[in-house]
Design goal:
Layout: H1 3-11, H2 17-21, E1 25-27, E2 35-36, E3 49-59, H3 71-87, E4 92-103, H4 108-125, E5 128-137, E6 142-152, E7 167-170, H5 176-190, H6 201-208, H7 214-223, E8 226-231, H8 236-247, E9 250-254, H9 262-271, H10 275-281, E10 288-292, H11 297-306, E11 312-318, E12 323-330, E13 333-338
Parallel strand pairs: 4-5, 9-12
Antiparallel strand pairs: 1-2, 3-6, 4-6, 7-10, 7-11, 8-10, 9-11, 12-13
Length: 348
């Protein structure tokens, strides 16, 4: 099957022209490039609006292998990571370009499964797949995704807007993806029955099929009191440092207020690992970390809970040179522990 037949095999019949037209697409897959109507009305986004663009790449042996991810999972997560970046700006995802570099020995069917996952994520978050590129790869599979989104003009939520005295908030638990990855790798090392009996299903799901917080981002934008926002891709501590440095202040996280999944904590105990390590430095949770006016934090939490969405108030910001610290309660009183500026880094 040649390149063009492969593309048709992977993409044909997935999304109707009328469905894509509602997302601003005038010409999708099948020509030299796609055409987008920059003035098309976007459901749920006020005019005038600005476009958001984000790109992520997943590389075999770096982001996944045959043990940690199925081909469907690879496709789903590759798109979800980009959707999360749009959510972190308070935006709505619209269109996606997919670039794949495929080892010759892989064959068309695994890639068909990968596109099954891509389109499953696209359907869930209303993303039109409009084109991309396909090349061969000498050894490993590479999937690169570019996503466009939209947000009301001048209202995008950025890392640099935090103010001293803000509450630090989080839209979901952290550490679950890292725990799921640990289980999958331990399973490979010790056999299929590794740590059998532990409740790890939702941890594995968190790693393989993350849920970008698009609705949460839109709710925070609409409140008008959210000053900064970031998605937790490289770890909670790393993302807090990004806000601290971009905004020029101190971010204090309160250990007792960090959301801790029961299944993650139970698995960490069985594995002999401090769950805080996964929570602070694990990454790939794709929840949102941000700052909001202190006097609106509890009202925002109530509004989220009314929508059935998680929302945690986990700290505060203060004036000072950029820093991130963890406030821990001990027998000797509160202890402020500086948090290292680390998380996943491709070049370390």
């Amino acid at each position: 099957m040649d390149e063009f037949a492969s593309i048709r095999h992977w993409t044909s019949g997935r999304q109707s022209e009328s469905w894509q037209r509602e997302r601003g697409v005038r010409l999708g897959i099948g020509d030299d490039a796609a055409l987008i109507d920059p003035a098309a009305p976007i459901a749920g986004v006020g005019s005038p609006y600005e476009y958001i663009m984000a790109m992520d790449t997943m590389v075999e042996t770096v982001h996944f292998n045959e043990v940690t991810m199925s081909y469907e999972d690879i496709g789903y997560k590759a798109l979800a990571a980009n959707v999360s970046d749009i959510a972190a700006m308070g935006g709505v995802p619209l269109q996606a370009l997919i670039s794949v570099s495929v080892p010759r020995q892989l064959g068309p069917e695994p890639m068909r499964r990968l596109y099954d996952g891509l389109y499953a994520c696209a359907e869930q978050y209303g993303v039109a797949i409009i084109g991309g590129d396909t090349t061969s790869s000498p050894q490993h599979l590479v999937v690169a995704v570019t996503v466009t989104g939209a947000v009301e003009a001048g209202q995008a939520l950025r890392r640099s807007g935090a103010r001293p005295g803000d509450a630090v908030v989080l839209t979901g638990p952290v550490g679950m993806s890292a725990a799921g990855l640990h289980f999958l790798l331990a399973q490979r090392e010790r056999g299929a029955d590794a740590l059998a009996g532990e409740r790890v299903g939702q941890l594995v799901q968190a790693h393989r099929r993350p849920s970008p917080s698009v609705r949460a981002g839109r709710l925070l934008l609409a409140r008008g009191t959210c000053h900064s926002l970031n998605d937790v891709s490289d770890g909670l501590a790393s993302e807090a440092w990004e806000i601290a440095e971009a905004s020029g202040l101190v971010v204090t996280l309160k250990e007792q207020q960090l959301p801790r999944s029961g299944s993650m904590a139970a698995y960490a105990g069985a594995a002999g690992i401090d769950p805080l390590e996964w929570m602070l430095y694990g990454g790939e949770d794709y929840v949102l970390l941000g700052t909001i006016e202190q006097n609106d934090a509890e009202a925002a939490q109530a509004a989220f809970h009314k929508e059935g969405l998680p929302f945690y108030i986990i700290g505060e910001t203060s004036a000072g040179d950029p820093a991130v610290e963890l406030l821990r309660s001990t027998d000797r009183g509160d202890l402020r522990q500086p948090l290292a500026k680390r998380g996943y880094n491709h070049f370390e």
